[in-house]
Amino acid sequence: MRNILRGEVKNASLEQLNALCGEIREEIFRTVSACGGHLSSNLGTVELTVALHRTFDFPKDKIVFDVGHQCYTHKLLSGRAKLFHTLRKEGGISGFPKREESEYDCYGTGHAGTAISAALGIAKARDIKGEDFEVVALVGDGSFNNGLVYEALNSLSVLNTRVLIVLNDNGMSISPTVGSTHEVLETMKRGDRDVRLFERYGLRYRGVVNGNDLGQLLPALEEAKELLKEGSVLLHVATKKGQGYPFSENAPLETHGFSPKPAAKEYASALGEELSALAGRDGRIVAVTAAMTDSLGLRPFFEKYPERAFDVGICEEHASVLCAALAAEGMKPYYAVYSTFLQRCFDEIIHDVCGQDLPVTFCVDRAGVTGEDGETHQGVFDLSYLSMIPNLTIGVPKNIAEFRAMLRASASFGHPLAIRYPRSGKEGTASPLEIGKFELLHSTMSDIIILAAGERCIGLAEDVRERLLREGMDVSLVSARFVKPLDAVFLDAIAEKYVVTLEDNVLSGGFGDAVARFLRGSGKQVFSFGLRDAFIPHGEAASLAAKYGLDGEKIFALIKELHARG
């Protein structure tokens, strides 16, 4: 796509701007079809972003995106059009705002609820330094459910600054937006203009404006910009997710995240199937999600057991405490959540769940290197931050069949449990399972044993072993399917001299560290492979895993060297 010059947006007629929106929409569809990415959210915000660029003077003025799912038009309008074909590819531009990528990206985002806090911080820094620019926070209605938004609004009067909050209301997060905040916004869109809630926070409310109509947007934004001279403003706009492409408009959930790759077997499907089956036999079982019912495979459960299914919106911490309290009253809650979003629940996992030793099961999806969404979505820290917590057991299945077996075993497990797994993998088979025990996959007379945690690492170990066999060498292989607590009986019985650990997690504080501590003083040498101390950017997952520490060539070379040592 040609570079769009700043003057085109500033000086174009309404007719020319509408034509530009059509051109941008086509480019987004063409690129996402090739590279994958967030489709429906970006199609829905083309006019809104063009209008913001027309009204404000970016990058002098600052715009903060909440989550950042909707930043593609902004990238096209800010000098990155010629790079747009590299979207989400390794070495290309990110699918989210990144400060190091462009001066137009003043704040990096990727998780919901942060934009207003960030906008207030930027505005306050402006005030202290005596600078003159405007600050815009673009927030979706799904993010407006997040408690961090209200913490930020609560401090608006204390900080005594001014920002423009553009509420992009399309009735969706990833799943349809739920909860009382959603109901309030819906009544406002239907004509009820009771804006006392926003005014009590110190906001001048304007809306509801059609966010896909430049004829309405441009004057509304000009008015909001003028009102900013007096204080903070909330402009409520209504957009249609997937705008301009009927298949996306009619299926905004299915086209929220689009991938051109063939669909693989997803662990999420197994979760929905197994939980539904378990719930049929056990009336205590409930399922909880934070605005990701379908992405996490829970739709079958929600349809079959609606009275035991809870989508709390983008409120991950609340979901954790809710599960703890449900468990305290005799229920058996399963909280399905992406690894990257579970990070938000750290205190609640410690204090509310594990501190009270309550039988909550965390189903931790997208664990390990996830790929194209980049730093904010790589699930590479959970083994480290979960492993330090007392009372918590952590399972890492070697395939989908074993994941099913862990879910079945969890139904009678009376303590906190986390099961971490990647997005997709092989169905495979499962051998008899005992919580807390490793599984010996291959036994040899070699002096080397590999302890691998999870499907990616077991697959990598098996590839290395096949190469070794072709060169007349062998190695024992173990599935470390429960990494917390460690299988002490198995580790004490290891006869091999050299122990190699593999984990799809940062090395610091992870599985390898735990094994090395356990075997300290035993005379055995431990060599750990995992992900190095870095934030992992976007790219293809397997390539990134190898580049950042799970390199089959290096593992193979090490084991050859250990064989030579004898």
Strand percent estimate:
15-25%
Helix and strand composition category: alpha/beta
| Rg value | 25 Å
CATH homologous superfamily designation of the largest domain: Thiamin diphosphate (ThDP)-binding fold, Pyr/PP domains
Indicate how many domains the architecture comprises.
3
Q: Which strand order does the major sheet show?
A: 9-8-10-11-13-12-17
| CATH topology (level 3) name of the largest domain | Rossmann fold
> In whole angstroms, how far apart are the ends?
59 Å
CATH class of the largest domain: Alpha Beta
Enumerate how many helices there are, as a single number. 24
Uncertain segments of ≥5 residues (pLDDT<50)? Answer: none
CATH architecture field of the largest domain: 3-Layer(aba) Sandwich
Write down the overall geometry.
globular
Mean pLDDT: 93
Number-wise, the strands total 19
Helix content: 25-40%
Major sheet characteristics = 7 strands, mixed
Question: What is this structure's SSE topology?
Answer:
Elements: H1 6-11, H2 14-35, E1 37-38, H3 40-43, H4 46-55, E2 62-65, H5 72-76, H6 115-129, E3 135-140, H7 147-154, H8 156-159, E4 164-169, H9 180-189, H10 196-200, E5 204-210, H11 214-227, E6 233-238, H12 246-250, E7 257-258, H13 267-281, E8 285-289, H14 299-304, E9 309-311, H15 316-328, E10 332-338, H16 339-342, H17 346-354, E11 361-365, H18 382-387, E12 393-395, H19 400-410, E13 417-420, E14 439-442, E15 448-453, H20 455-470, E16 476-479, E17 482-484, H21 488-492, E18 498-506, H22 511-519, E19 525-531, H23 541-547, H24 552-565
Parallel strand pairs: 2-3, 3-4, 4-6, 5-6, 8-9, 8-10, 10-11, 11-13, 12-13, 15-16, 15-18, 18-19
Antiparallel strand pairs: 1-7, 12-17, 14-16
